[in-house]
Amino acid sequence: MKKLVVLLCALLALGSSAQALEVSAPSALLMEKETGTVLFAKDEHAKLEPASVTKVMTLLLTMEAIDAGQLHYDDVVTASAHACSMGGSQIWLKENEQMTVSDMLKAVCVVSANDCAVALAETVAGSEEAFVERMNQRAAELGMADTHFCNATGLPAEGHVTSAYDIALMSRELIRNHPDIRQYTTIWMDSLRDGASSLVNTNRLIRFYQGATGLKTGSTDSALYCLSGTAERDGMELIAVIMKAPTSTQRFEDATNLLNYGFSTYTLENVVPESALPPVPVSLGTQATVQPVLGENTHLLLEKAKAGSLQQLVTLADSVEAPVAAGSQLGTLTITSGEEVVAELPILAGEEIPRVTFGQMLVQMLRTAFLCG
């Protein structure tokens, strides 16, 4: 009887897990932002139309221009005839109408304004065509092998495709390196033109999902309903990508299921040594020791069940010979959970130690001899 109860509990847990991971869309992916770990995937490399989720790349290039000082939030953009001709989702810019970069970013993030997306593209690159070249170049740099962009908006165009995996890559790049985009992607309701134009976010997660941070919706008759949905809880941010969902409601349900699964199953830990790392002796160096440090990537993505039983083991070299380059490996911090090794983090030299020259060695010997005498 006891074995039967245990078996039933196991089957119930399995059923619950399967239900949490139920995704009706033909293509989907769940990724953790900090480590880039894929937590769930379903036909993630299928080349599909992304509709306005394309604008994640438009936003990325715009934010990169802002962070590089080439563009500023309060710069005024003048709408071109081309930008005003886009159709689809828009805020009905008039030719020569002027609006700040900040307000145009708000319009793109909240109501997916095609006219503002093109106006920003023209401001960054001179023309939409030149901007699209940059989009494809940036996609290649990010390893987006399933992607080809034909415009800055995601309006239907022959050959304009990407994948759930590639959308996660560019979404991660945007939210990880340009967190200021959140000031726009987390807006639920706002207005432009001194209150004359009301805005309501097309992303229902912002209103109804705890911790939602963005990111971009998209839909056309051929692309159906797409989404890159992001949310953060307890210091961990997840990216849920849904492509070609049959209805708008279904894309949000799918994204919610993926995010719920991620937050209930995983945790992100920032590894800190339990005790100070001792200096490592250096022979033939300009100083006697080098101070070890952990590398920059100290975040560890773990199943919650393993997070409470972590142990650390530090292994360091007995000594090293100069020259010692900053960042060279001195040892390893091994993280275990029970008998399982869950991570091995490199311990690096925190500074450069040059090799002592013959002249410096001679001076040291003479100084020592003098002091001893």
UniProtKB/TrEMBL annotation:
<dbReference type="InterPro" id="IPR037167">
    <property type="entry name" value="Peptidase_S11_C_sf"/>
</dbReference>
<keyword id="KW-0121">Carboxypeptidase</keyword>
<dbReference type="GO" id="GO:0008360">
    <property type="term" value="P:regulation of cell shape"/>
</dbReference>
<keyword id="KW-0732">Signal</keyword>
<keyword id="KW-0378">Hydrolase</keyword>
<feature type="domain" description="Peptidase S11 D-Ala-D-Ala carboxypeptidase A C-terminal">
    <location>
        <begin position="266"/>
        <end position="355"/>
    </location>
</feature>
<dbReference type="Pfam" id="PF07943">
    <property type="entry name" value="PBP5_C"/>
</dbReference>
<dbReference type="GO" id="GO:0006508">
    <property type="term" value="P:proteolysis"/>
</dbReference>
<dbReference type="InterPro" id="IPR012907">
    <property type="entry name" value="Peptidase_S11_C"/>
</dbReference>
<feature type="active site" description="Acyl-ester intermediate">
    <location>
        <position position="52"/>
    </location>
</feature>
<feature type="binding site">
    <location>
        <position position="216"/>
    </location>
    <ligand>
        <name>substrate</name>
    </ligand>
</feature>
<comment type="pathway">
    <text>Cell wall biogenesis; peptidoglycan biosynthesis.</text>
</comment>
<keyword id="KW-0133">Cell shape</keyword>
<dbReference type="GO" id="GO:0009002">
    <property type="term" value="F:serine-type D-Ala-D-Ala carboxypeptidase activity"/>
</dbReference>
<keyword id="KW-0961">Cell wall biogenesis/degradation</keyword>
<comment type="function">
    <text>Removes C-terminal D-alanyl residues from sugar-peptide cell wall precursors.</text>
</comment>
<keyword id="KW-0645">Protease</keyword>
<dbReference type="InterPro" id="IPR001967">
    <property type="entry name" value="Peptidase_S11_N"/>
</dbReference>
<dbReference type="InterPro" id="IPR018044">
    <property type="entry name" value="Peptidase_S11"/>
</dbReference>
<keyword id="KW-0573">Peptidoglycan synthesis</keyword>
<feature type="active site">
    <location>
        <position position="112"/>
    </location>
</feature>
<comment type="similarity">
    <text>Belongs to the peptidase S11 family.</text>
</comment>
<dbReference type="GO" id="GO:0009252">
    <property type="term" value="P:peptidoglycan biosynthetic process"/>
</dbReference>
<dbReference type="Pfam" id="PF00768">
    <property type="entry name" value="Peptidase_S11"/>
</dbReference>
<dbReference type="InterPro" id="IPR015956">
    <property type="entry name" value="Peniciliin-bd_prot_C_sf"/>
</dbReference>
<feature type="signal peptide">
    <location>
        <begin position="1"/>
        <end position="20"/>
    </location>
</feature>
<dbReference type="InterPro" id="IPR012338">
    <property type="entry name" value="Beta-lactam/transpept-like"/>
</dbReference>
<dbReference type="GO" id="GO:0071555">
    <property type="term" value="P:cell wall organization"/>
</dbReference>
<protein>
    <recommendedName>
        <fullName>serine-type D-Ala-D-Ala carboxypeptidase</fullName>
        <ecNumber>3.4.16.4</ecNumber>
    </recommendedName>
</protein>
<feature type="active site" description="Proton acceptor">
    <location>
        <position position="55"/>
    </location>
</feature>
